Structure formats: C-alpha cells, structure tokens
Amino acid sequence: MKSTPHPVSSPRPRIGLALGGGSARGWAHIGVIRALRDAAVEPDIVCGTSIGALVGAAYVDGDLDQLETWVRSLRLQTVVSFLDFSLGGGLIKGDRLIEFFRSHFVDRDIRDLPRPFGAVATDLHRGREVWLREGRVTDAVRASIALPGLFTPARVDGRWLVDGGLVNPVPVSLCRAMGADLVIAVDLNADLLGRHLKAGQARALRQPDTADPDTATDGVMARIQAGMAQLGINHDAGPEAPAMLDVLATSINIMQVLITRSRLAGEPADVMVSPLLADLGLMEFHRASVAIDAGRRAVAAVLPQLQARLDGLNGS
Q1: What do you get for the CA distance between the two ends of the chain, in Å?
Q2: What's residue 258's pLDDT?
C-alpha cells in the first residue's frame, strides 16, 4: 500500500505595513501598530513616507515604547523649541528635530535593522520617487519628512530630496517590491479636504488661545507665523483672507489626498486603515493622544477584513 504524502505547508505570508505621510497626524501610526500587535499581527516589512518613515524606523528598531512615551509628553512649547526658522529652501531647517531623533532613537544603517525597512522621498530636480533602503536611518527620515515650503530639502548622495508624499504618500508599491504578500496600508489623509478653511479657522490661527496654548487650534502654526513675522515675511493678505500657512496647509492636504487616491487606485493595498484625523492640524504634534487613539479605532474597524485576508492566504 502506498503511503499518502503529507501536504506540504506553504510558508507564512509576508506581511507588509505601509505607513503614510501626514505630518502630526502620523502619531496615529503608533496606535495602528499597537492595535495590530494586540491582534497578533506583526509585519515582516515596514515602509514609510514622511512621518510614516519616522515612526516606522523607530518601530523596526524596537524604539516604539520610547517614542510613544516621548510624543505623549510633548507640549506646544516643546514643539516650538524644535522649530529652527530659515529663509532658504523652507521655513524650518529641521536640524534640531533630527538631532534629537538621532541622539534618542535609532541611528544606524538601514541594512542593519532587525527587519526590512524602506523610506520614500522625492528627487527635487528630477521629480522622481526615491526608495531609501540603505544608508543612515536618520538621513532617510530627514529626507522623507522634508515637506516643501515648510522643511528645507535634504542632501543625500548628491541629490536634493524632499517629502515622499509628493509622489507616493502611502508606499504600498515599495512594500510589494520588498516582497510583501499582503500589504496593510495606513492613509492619514482620507478625510482632510475642507478641514483648514472651515468658518473661523483663519481667525483662530491668527489669534491663538493664549490662556491655554496646548489646546489652541493649530497653535504651532500660529507660532510659526509669529516667527515669520520676526523674519520680516508678510504672511497675511488682509482681515478676511486665510493666513499664509493656512493656505499652505490646505494646499498640502489637497495635494496629498488626490495623489493618494491616484496611487492607491493603481496599486491598491490588501487592507486599508484610515484613521479619522480631520480635526488634527498639520503641526499639532503635541496632540499625540488624539492621533494614537484614532489609529487604534481604525484598526478595530478593519480587523475582520484583515483576519479574513490572512486566513485566505494561510489556506484556512
């Protein structure tokens, strides 16, 4: 009698996590990662654009606990202390923030990280998407977060690089190129259009609540505008017009939403996580708890879909 061979078990599918850009809204990635871990989902590959690159790098290196403790402790005054104003290439040089990240969190070669990691940036001169998969982690993060008009560009390997959100706000394609069988993508910009120009927003930006600066609407943006005034930059076109940075933030929102929709239409993720973050301003890094909680809720909403996709890949 011939023995029946045992079925050969297929290897476990490789899970990729694509962390999108969105400035201060990016702290939601911490909540997403926490919720995935609670559900016993550990990504094998992590890719990030902009703030997604920063959080992703910390996560891959095992620094997520430390990062969460730090971001939850941020206050408006702390965020303002990282703003080094500039007249060349962007309003903020970003050196203080990156030096803090370099000294407190991961700073080694990307290839030495415990699991595959990649960051997305944009070649400023060629307009091309750049995948950063080697070199110092902090250099990759600095390039990926260089939001045009706000942060100065980063010089990497002879190229001027800016925020990856210009070309690939949610890096699903990079995850797949690095070998992911299933991609979980986090889109921070799904509900943003119209957020910054709601009635009264422009006035709130110009006149922050000085009694409680940590709860002022977009207080950081107001402080940046004050810094611009000290540099002699005219930032207000009149009493009824939106402030200059309000226009900048809204324009960035429009750009990222439309580019994200276009890229995801052609390169869809297997599971899309979309935290609701429309009430969180571009530079409100001191409101981490709001973003982290939103990230957790967004994962809870898609867990049944995620589990079904995993079961399908595992042959259950």
Answers
A1: 30
A2: 87
